[in-house]
Design a protein that fits this description.
single chain, 751 residues, Tachylectin-2, Chain A, Immunoglobulin-like, five-stranded mixed beta sheet, 6 helices, globular, Glycosyl_Hydrlase_43_Enz, Beta-xylosidase, carbohydrate metabolism
Length: 751
C-alpha cells in the first residue's frame, strides 16, 4: 500500500530529486509544494508527464475483507479522518461483488494503490475461497478505477498464463507498486510450488492493468527456508523496506531492505510485531502531514488488528488504545485520500445511520451505544459523572457530511433532535437520548467476575476473565477497584501467563481471590484457570504483583469423573469453622479443603458435589443465617439461555438441596439482556445487603453475534434479595445497575 504524503521540499537537492523520491515510494508523482501551494509537474523515466493533485490528503480509505466464510471473502471499505478511528462504509457489506470479479467466487487480502498520475487507482486481491483449501488457488484479480467507486477487473491465472507452473499450489496476497525505473506497475505476490516454501515473486502489469506482461521472477525468499508471504514494500530514506511474514523456523513479521526495488533484499533478522500471538497481513502507511508510520497487522487467532507506530521503521510502539473500528477486518491496506474523494465515497456507500452511530466522546460507553434504525432513535450510555446538561456526543463527520446541532446539548430533559445530511442523499432526523446507566460496570469486554471487598484498602475489587478474544484465547488477568460499586478503576494486568506462569500459556479464565489476615499482615490468594488447569498465585496487595506457585494446583479429574474440565475455581472461607475450601469444575462440581498454606489441597478431602443435571460450571459459595448457598451456571456461555441456579446445604461440603424454583438470574428479552451467568456474590460489610456480580452478552450486539457472543461479554452488578424463608428471589437483570454505596469507613468481607 503506497501513499502520497506532503513532504518538506528542502530535504532534497532540487525539484527533480524531490519528485523522484515521491515516485520511488510508489506514490503520486507530484505533490503540492508546502511552501507556496504551487502545482508542479515532472516527467517520469517512462517519459510520461505527471501532474500533482490539487489538494492534500485529509482522510484514509481502509480496504479489507472480514473472514473465512464465502460471504466474508469480499472487498469492503472503511473511512477515517485521522488514520486511527475507522468507520465501515456500506454497513460493512462488500462494495464489489466477489462473484462478478473472481474465478472462485471469493477474494481476500485487498491491496489498494494510488497511481503515479494521482487520479487512477489500482487494487489487487487474492482470487480464493478458503473453504476450498489453503492450496487451492492459482489466480489473482487486478482492478482499476478513476473514482474509487467504479472498478474494472481482470482475473490473472498464473498457472494458465505462464509455462513451467505445473506444480504451482497457490498464489497469495498480491500488492502493487510503481517502478519509476521501468515506468510500469510492478505486482508482487507469494507463490508456493510443490514442496518448496512460499516465496515472493514479481511481474509487471500491462499498460491497461488487465494482465501480467512479464513472467514472474523471484523477488525474495526467507533465508531460514521458511515461508515468505504477505509482502508489503515501502520506500524510506533511499531504501525499499519489504515487510513480510515468515513461517517455519519461527513465525512473525520481519523486514528485508534493498537499494533497488527488484533485487538485493537483505534480511534484518528480527521480528517487528509487538505481540507473541500469531500475525499476518502486515500493512505499512505514513500518516498525513507527519513523519510517523503505522505498521498494522492481523492478529488472526484473536480476531483483532494491532496498530503500531514508528518513525524509523525499526522500532514500533503499540497504539491499540488510540485505535477504534466498528468492524473486524482481516488482511487489508490503507490509502490516504482527499476530502473530495472521501465525500464521493460517503455519497456512494456512507449512511446517515452510521454517522449518527459514530459518537466517540470520552464519556461514552462506546460498545453499548444502541441505534434503532427503523424508529430513528439513538441511545447513548454515559459513564458516571458525565455532565448531561452540556454534553457533546462528538459524532464523526467525514467530508461531505453535516450534523446539526454541533455544540454541546442539554440531555437532562429528554431526547435531543439531530439532523444528518450526507451529500447526495436525503437528510435524516434522529431522536438522541443520553443517560447514565451503570451496567456494564467495567469498560470493555470481561467475564466470569469474582468480587472482593478488601479490609486492607477499604475498596471493592473485581477480578474477571479478559474477554473479547476469539475462542476464549486471552492470556492475562486484570483487576478493577472501586470505593462505591459504580466508579471502577482499571488497575492493570496482575498476572500474565506468558510472563508470570511457567506451566501454561493459554486460556486465562475464571479467577477467584480471597484475602487472609495473619497478625497485621494481609495475603491475597488468587486461584485461576490456565490451559484447563487450576493454579494459585500469591500477593501482599489486592492489585499484586502476584507470584505464581510454579505448578498447577489441580490438573486432573477427581476420582470417578471422566468428562468435563478442571476450570472455574471458587474459594470460600467458612465463617463457622475458619476452614477454607476450593470448588471447581465444568461438567461436574468438586470441592476440597485447603491446607493452612492456602496453596495446596488437604489430602483425602476432595469430593464430587454436582448438585443436579443443570450444573455446567461457575460454582460460587456464600453463607447467610446458618445456610450455605451454592450458585452455579447452567447451559453454555455462548447460549442466550446461560443462567444461574442455586441450592443450599447445612455444611460447606454437605449434600446440596436443590429447591423447585431455584432460578437466580436469566435473560430479559424485553431489555435485550442475554447470557446472564458465571457470577460471584458480595455482602455489604456488616449488613444483610447483597449483590450479584455476573457477566452477560455485550449489549446490544451480542445477540447478533452467534457463538462469538460467548467471548464478547461484559460485567454487570444488580441487587440480590432473599425471601423471608431464606430462598433467593429471582433477579431481574438491568441496564441501570446499582446506586453508589457509601461504606462510611466500615470494614467488610467477601463471602
Amino acid at each position: 500500500m503506497r501513499y502520497s504524503i506532503l513532504t518538506k521540499r528542502h530535504r532534497y537537492q532540487n525539484t527533480t530529486d524531490y519528485i523522484k523520491r515521491c515516485l520511488f515510494s510508489g506514490v503520486v508523482s507530484c505533490l503540492l509544494l508546502s511552501s507556496c501551494g504551487q502545482q508542479i509537474t515532472s516527467s517520469a523515466s517512462s517519459g510520461t508527464e505527471e501532474k500533482a493533485p490539487e489538494e492534500a490528503y485529509s482522510a484514509y480509505l481502509f480496504t479489507y475483507f472480514t473472514g473465512n466464510n464465502k460471504d466474508e471473502e469480499a472487498i469492503r471499505f472503511a473511512l477515517s479522518n485521522d488514520g486511527y478511528n475507522y468507520r465501515a462504509l456500506n454497513n460493512n457489506k462488500p462494495v464489489i461483488n466477489s462473484a462478478d470479479i473472481s474465478s472462485t467466487g471469493g477474494v481476500r487480502d485487498p491491496h489498494i494503490l494510488r497511481g503515479a498520475d494521482g487520479k487512477t487507482f489500482y487494487m489487487v486481491v487474492t482470487d480464493m475461497v478458503s473453504a476450498n483449501g489453503w492450496s487451492s488457488n492459482r489466480a489473482m484479480v487486478l482492478l482499476k478505477s478513476t473514482d474509487l467507486v467504479n472498478w474494472t477487473s481482470s482475473v490473472v491465472n498464473i498457472q494458465q498464463q505462464f509455462s513451467g507452473q505445473e506444480d504451482l499450489l497457490r498464489v497469495w496476497a498480491p500488492q502493487t507498486i510503481y517502478d519509476p525505473e521501468a515506468g510500469k506497475y510492478m505486482i508482487y505476490f507469494s507463490m508456493k510450488h510443490g514442496e518448496d516454501p512460499d516465496k515472493i515473486y514479481y511481474a509487471y502489469a500491462n499498460k491497461d492493468f488487465t494482465a501480467l506482461e512479464t513472467t514472474p521472477k523471484q523477488l525474495f525468499f526467507s533465508p531460514t527456508n521458511g515461508a515468505a508471504i504477505d509482502g508489503d514494500i515501502i520506500h524510506k530514506d533511499g531504501k525499499y523496506h519489504l515487510f513480510f511474514k515468515t513461517e517455519g523456523e519461527g513465525s512473525g513479521i520481519k523486514i528485508a531492505t534493498s537499494d533497488k526495488l527488484t533485487e538485493g533484499y537483505v534480511l534484518q533478522d528480527k521480528y517487528v510485531q509487538q505481540t507473541k500471538d500469531p500475525v499476518e497481513g502486515s500493512g505499512v502507511f505514513k500518516l498525513n502531514n507527519s513523519d510517523d508510520y503505522i505498521l498494522m497487522y492481523d492478529v488472526y487467532t484473536k480476531g483483532k488488528y494491532q496498530f503500531t507506530k514508528s518513525r524509523d521503521l525499526q522500532n514500533f510502539t503499540i497504539i491499540d488504545q488510540e485505535v477504534s473500528m466498528n468492524f473486524h477486518p482481516r488482511h487489508g491496506t490503507v490509502l490516504p485520500v482527499t476530502a473530495e474523494e472521501a465525500a464521493r465515497l460517503m455519497g456512494k456507500w456512507g449512511t446517515a445511520d452510521d454517522v449518527i452511530g459514530s459518537a466517540r466522546a470520552s464519556g461514552l460507553k462506546k460498545i453499548n451505544i444502541t441505534l434503532d434504525t427503523a424508529a430513528k432513535q439513538l441511545y447513548l450510555p454515559v459513564k458516571p459523572g458525565v455532565n448531561l446538561s452540556a454534553f457533546d456526543p462528538e459524532f464523526t463527520a467525514f467530508p461531505g457530511v453535516t450534523i446539526a446541532p454541533q455544540s454541546a446539548q442539554d440531555f437532562t430533559s429528554g431526547p435531543v433532535t439531530y439532523t444528518v445530511n450526507v451529500k447526495g442523499q436525503e437528510p435524516h432526523t434522529y431522536q438522541v437520548t443520553a443517560r447514565e446507566d451503570h451496567n456494564p460496570v467495567l469498560e470493555g469486554f470481561y467475564a466470569d467476575p469474582d468480587v472482593l471487598y478488601s479490609e486492607k484498602t477499604g475498596k471493592f475489587y473485581i477480578y474477571p476473565t479478559s474477554d473479547g478474544f476469539t475462542g476464549w484465547s486471552g492470556t492475562y488477568f486484570k483487576t478493577f477497584s472501586s470505593d462505591n460499586l459504580v466508579d471502577w478503576k482499571d488497575e492493570g494486568v496482575i498476572l500474565d501467563l506468558h510472563k508470570d506462569v511457567s506451566w501454561a500459556d493459554r486460556n486465562a479464565w475464571a479467577p477467584c481471590i480471597i484475602e487472609k489476615k495473619t497478625g497485621d499482615q494481609y495475603k491475597y490468594f488468587y486461584y485461576f484457570t490456565a490451559a484447563q488447569k487450576i493454579g494459585v498465585a500469591v500477593a501482599d496487595n489486592p492489585t499484586g504483583p502476584f507470584v505464581d506457585s510454579g505448578k498447577p494446583l489441580i490438573d486432573a479429574f477427581p476420582e470417578g469423573v471422566t468428562g468435563g474440565q478442571q476450570i472455574d475455581p471458587e474459594v470460600f472461607a467458612d465463617p463457622k469453622t475458619g476452614k477454607n475450601y476450593l470448588y471447581w469444575g465444568n461438567g461436574y462440581m468438586a470441592g476440597a479443603e485447603l491446607n493452612e498454606d492456602m496453596v495446596s489441597i488437604k489430602p483425602g478431602t476432595t469430593k464430587v458435589m454436582t448438585p443436579d443435571a443443570t450444573f455446567r460450571e461457575g460454582a460460587t459459595v456464600s453463607y447467610r443465617n446458618g445456610t450455605y448457598y451454592f450458585l452455579w451456571s447452567e447451559d453454555d456461555t455462548r447460549s442466550e439461555n446461560y443462567r444461574v441456579r442455586y441450592g443450599t446445604s447445612s455444611t460447606p461440603m454437605g449434600k446440596i438441596i436443590v429447591p423447585e424454583n431455584n432460578l437466580v438470574i436469566a435473560k430479559d428479552k424485553e431489555a435485550g439482556i442475554y447470557g446472564t451467568g458465571h457470577n460471584s456474590i458480595l455482602q455489604m460489610p456488616g449488613k444483610d445487603e447483597w449483590y450479584i456480580v455476573y457477566h452477560r452478552f455485550n449489549y446490544p450486539k451480542g445477540i447478533t453475534m452467534g457463538d462469538a457472543a460467548g467471548y464478547n461479554r461484559e460485567v454487570s452488578i444488580d441487587k440480590l434479595e432473599f425471601n423471608t424463608d431464606g430462598s433467593i428471589r429471582q433477579v431481574t437483570p438491568t441496564h441501570q445497575g446499582v446506586k453508589a454505596v457509601d461504606l462510611k469507613g466500615n470494614g467488610g468481607n467477601r463471602l
